[in-house]
Design brief:
Elements: E1 6-11, E2 17-24, H1 31-34, H2 38-54, H3 66-72, H4 78-93, H5 95-105, H6 109-116, H7 120-133, H8 139-157, H9 164-173
Antiparallel strand pairs: 1-2
Helix pairs in contact: 3-4, 7-8
């Protein structure tokens, strides 16, 4: 039901990924935790916020859990249940509409983000977060560590579509 949450998973001995802590409405999304992956999170949040604002998308005030309980209480296999949950999520988040909007209006976002994350402003943003969390004698060390990981992301993403996860999600539904 939340627009922004996380789903942590554990891989069982049977090779199956099991969701845990899947209703965390305030996931850890700081550069100090995500470093290399932080630009992806920022771009994803920008896409989602811009889409919601532009189309004036409204969400219900209350969550409707009934469809989820119906799936949970069914005789479907675990995999079939996950597929049904994914279908509910795609309808709830209007995935097709969102992807079309992003393709039409936000095609330049990867390039803009790639450029910005290489600026002094980006490094200063990292420094501010590190300063808020780390002792003074560790600020330079960890600012450089996290910014270097962002730079690694920039170097690896140069000349490529930088949002592989977004592309995979689109391809998986095609």
């Amino acid at each position: 039901g939340w627009d922004f949450n996380s789903c942590e998973s554990l891989r069982g001995g049977d090779g199956v990924w099991y969701p845990i802590d899947f209703a965390n409405p305030c996931p850890d999304s700081q550069v100090t935790s995500l470093h290399y992956h932080f630009p992806w999170l920022i771009k994803a949040n920008l896409r989602w916020a811009i889409f919601n604002a532009a189309v004036k998308r409204r969400r219900p005030l209350n969550l409707n859990w009934a469809p989820y309980y119906e799936i949970a209480d069914s005789d479907r296999t675990y995999r079939e249940k996950l597929t049904k949950y994914v279908d509910l999520a795609h309808r709830s988040f209007e995935t097709d509409r969102f992807e079309e909007f992003c393709s039409k209006h936000l095609g330049h976002l990867d390039e803009v983000a790639h450029e910005w994350f290489g600026t002094d402003s980006a490094k200063e943003a990292v420094r501010k977060k590190v300063t808020a969390l780390y002792p003074e004698n560790e600020i330079d060390e960890f600012t450089n560590l996290f910014f270097d990981r962002i730079e690694k992301w920039r170097n690896e993403e140069s000349g490529q579509e930088s949002d592989r996860a977004f592309a995979v999600a689109r391809g998986a539904r095609a």
